[in-house]
Design goal:
There is one protein chain. The protein contains six helices and nine strands, in the order αββαβαβαβββαβαβ. Helix 2 crosses helix 4. By secondary structure, the chain is an alpha+beta fold. The strands form two sheets. Strands 1-2-5-6-7-9 form a six-stranded antiparallel beta sheet, covered by helices on one side. The chain has a three-stranded antiparallel beta sheet with strand order 4-3-8.
Length: about 260
Amino acid sequence: MNRYKGEGGVNNQRTHDRKLNAVMSIVIVWLTLSPIWLVGCAVPHIPSRIVYEDPVNYVRLEEDADVLAEWPPTHHTHPFLIEPGTIRTLLTGMKVQEHRTILQRWFLGESPLVQAFTDEEVTLLSAQLAGALAEASYNERVTFYLSQPQTFARRIITTGGLYIHGAELHFLLGNWRIIYGIPAYGMIYDRRYPMRPTAAKGFDLLFQPVEAMIPLQSSLLDEIFANAKDELVIDLTKLESSEPVTLLMRTCMNGQPLCSRDPS
């Protein structure tokens, strides 16, 4: 009887040792691989260069990951020379409308249109975006960040980006007058990623005149989360402006700019 108890105790001890060894092996593997996992999960760095910056705003150029050097159809039409007055026309033509569901529209009707940018913001961005497009490379997009500090840890932000492809201007509004709370710890995302929303958008971005807009396809998921109309594609050849849109400085295969103008 004692012999069986003794053997059982030995077997239990061996089972316990095997489990302990297995747990230790898992811990060792986790400690070994955790730096690799942390690197793999780290927030990616987006190469960029500042065109304009003050204490609360900036305009910069970012590399566009969707542009492939070996595939020319993905290349943006940059550098691109456009008059600040034309940028002003574009910005003042942009309207924001609160997104309402079909049921909300049934009872409340359509929400009013609001200017996307204030006069001060238009004045700042008109010159800086025009300058950024003139400096941009074929694989870069222009991004902007506007903020109004409320407290030490809160600010109202409007952010987004744009690029030109052929004669089409693509404009995305990442955040519009969103109250952003600076986290007590961790990454501050609003300044680092201006084209990414920091909260549910809940707005539609529109443009007038509507004839200059190119319709975009959107998914059902985008419709549900009100992300279907946060991007505009505008045909610059149909833009009504007192100053002509000028295509200039299109970089050739040999890196030399074209010297001709092609007014639209």
